[in-house]
Write a structure and sequence with these properties.
The structure is a homodimer. By secondary structure, chain A is α/β, with parallel strands linked by helices. The first copy, chain A, is built from eleven helices and 15 strands. Chain A has three domains: about 110 residues, Tetrapyrrole methylase, N-terminal domain (Cobalt-precorrin-4 Transmethylase, domain 1); about 120 residues, Tetrapyrrole methylase, C-terminal domain (Methyltransferase, Cobalt-precorrin-4 Transmethylase, Domain 2, 2-Layer Sandwich); about 80 residues, no CATH class. In chain A, β9 and β10 form a beta hairpin. Chains A, B: Pathway: Cofactor biosynthesis; adenosylcobalamin biosynthesis.
Chain lengths: ~325, ~325
């Protein structure tokens, strides 16, 4: 494009390219790469978008060089260039967004700087891998990285134990590598403290890429599976099931509707309203149990919640149910 | 397109449309809607993709009618139609994927059925909202829905308490509605058992849509903010900070590198290798502490991990560090 030279400020675009198939990139992600003078990224991600890189300056980096990538991006942007700093999945999920801001702030950058920063969201590995195996997420879920290159092991272990106890669906990122082989065993050990050994697990390698491979297994066999740095491990919650080769976590409709009887609403429940065991109903139950003589400690054990939380909750007045607004509820 | 009539099986495409801006839809999501004869979705999502719907049969549903949407999709697909069943964000995250499979299985459908099912991943609200406020995710995170319409409150409370204790970044979905006003207060109460009152919180309403609004606040003021059904609440972890109007969660580089001294590697640490407090280093420390006389209970309290886990870990032989493979580590 021929234009009179007009000096412009550079720009850093933190692009989440999704799982790596061009079909699964957003329009903004493609446009950002098209707009860029310089594209920086881990060599594997650069290859995934090779078709979009003609005529651009490419800076390929190795793993563990995230800070270098951010520094290179800032240097190029300060030289007036438009930089696409690419991450697989979503740039904000174990990607380049965090490290880039850390480097920018360290360099004295502020949002008033001529160099502007844009983050372009994408579907993270947990979303892409989930889409390939069915509907394992559906309900409350977590992402935990088993990489201890930057995080102490006790922090990771504490997180694994907490979410196993609280029955989340869990996606393990960076589950295993040539050097880190034991972390996945420790994760399994911690999960088995709380979960059934036959809890469904799906392992997706290279989702939406040429060497895609999907394995269904169970918690007690998880550590024996072929897992590497290109794998995402999805551990179901206590309601997750596998049927006909699809892993599905229920949303909870069975709590309200009799799914076998044409979806009739169960007694005591109402469509569009909180469950009878939702917050307000549960508070009434709690009050009644306490009034009937159950101690705080008994209630805490029964509901598996902290005693001080039970105590504070009982001391809080139960307000009249808020007037329904025009807004429908989900 | 004029073609000789060839009877084809219908198809259900579960499409995650992302935050709602056409720029942030993937190519596959757009193509799926273009391909569809019938588009089904919650009325708000139908409006977001209105430009793509010319000539198609549209079925608009209200909130809480997720099972109805899935039933309508199956009916249309059995009649030979291509159906796009749309969800905002990612169809697998509190979206239509789970409910659709539940309805399909209930109807006797299997993957061998002529009606095929495809899930098209998209960026979920937590990714989009995070992209608008900086880099709040970066490290281990969770999504929890505060809706108790299908989930008992103690289950939700237990999850909130667990992730607050284990220091996750947390995205709250369905945080508040006209009827459900107290759940956000309970969430705050549970978080304050573990987290500093000044923990950064970002509240993003209608991200990437016309009425987008972003508020930064703190944990102790979170419940006073304007929160509704179009809001996603992002609660930082104990290292998350807000600087220059951007919310950033560190990845942990400061554990390994002296960020103020040009990124020099700290003593005892090595680039590309586990931290000295990573699994193998921590196991050595644990063995040494135990050999020096610390009891299992003392170690459990010090490292804030379950005593039985400490005991099992001490009993497991520490294998020689696995031979490094060609594969680089992150």
């Amino acid at each position: 494009m021929n234009e009179a030279y007009v000096p412009t400020a550079g720009k850093i675009m933190l692009v989440g390219i999704g799982p790596g198939s061009v079909d699964h990139m957003t329009k903004r992600a493609r446009d950002a790469i098209a707009e860029a003078d310089v594209v920086i990224g881990y060599v594997t991600y650069i290859k995934l978008v090779a078709d979009l890189l003609e005529g651009k300056e490419i800076i390929r980096k190795s793993m563990t060089e995230e800070l270098d990538r951010a520094v290179s991006a800032l240097e190029a942007a300060r030289a007036g260039k438009k930089v696409a700093l690419i991450s697989s999945g979503d740039a904000g999920v174990y990607g380049m967004a965090g490290p880039t801001f850390e480097v920018l702030f360290q360099s004295g950058w502020t949002p008033d700087d001529p160099v502007q920063v844009e983050i372009i969201p994408g579907a993270s590995a947990l979303n892409s891998c989930a889409a390939l195996v069915g509907a394992p997420l559906t309900h409350d879920f977590c992402a935990i990285s088993l990489s201890d290159l930057l995080t102490p092991w006790p922090t990771i272990a504490r997180r694994l134990d907490a979410v196993a106890m609280a029955d989340f669906v869990v996606a393990l990122y960076n589950p295993k590598s040539g050097r880190r082989t034991r972390q996945i065993l420790e994760a399994q050990r911690l999960f088995l403290r709380h979960r059934r050994p036959d809890t469904p697990v799906a392992i997706v390698k290279s989702g939406y890429r040429r060497r895609q491979n999907i394995v269904f297994t169970t918690l007690d066999s998880m550590a024996d599976a072929d897992i590497g740095m290109l794998s995402t491990v999805l551990i179901g919650n206590s309601n997750t099931f596998v049927r006909h080769g699809l892993m599905v976590t229920p949303r909870g409709y069975a709590n309200k509707y009799d799914m076998e009887e044409g979806g009739a609403t169960r007694e005591g429940e109402r469509a569009g309203r909180s469950l009878s065991t939702g917050l307000l109903g549960w508070l009434e139950t709690l009050q009644a149990e306490h009034a009937a003589g159950d101690s705080i400690e008994t209630l805490a054990a029964r509901h598996r919640l902290p005693a001080d939380y039970i105590r504070d909750t009982l001391n809080e007045p139960v307000e009249a149910e808020a007037a329904a607004s025009e807004e429908a509820e989900a």
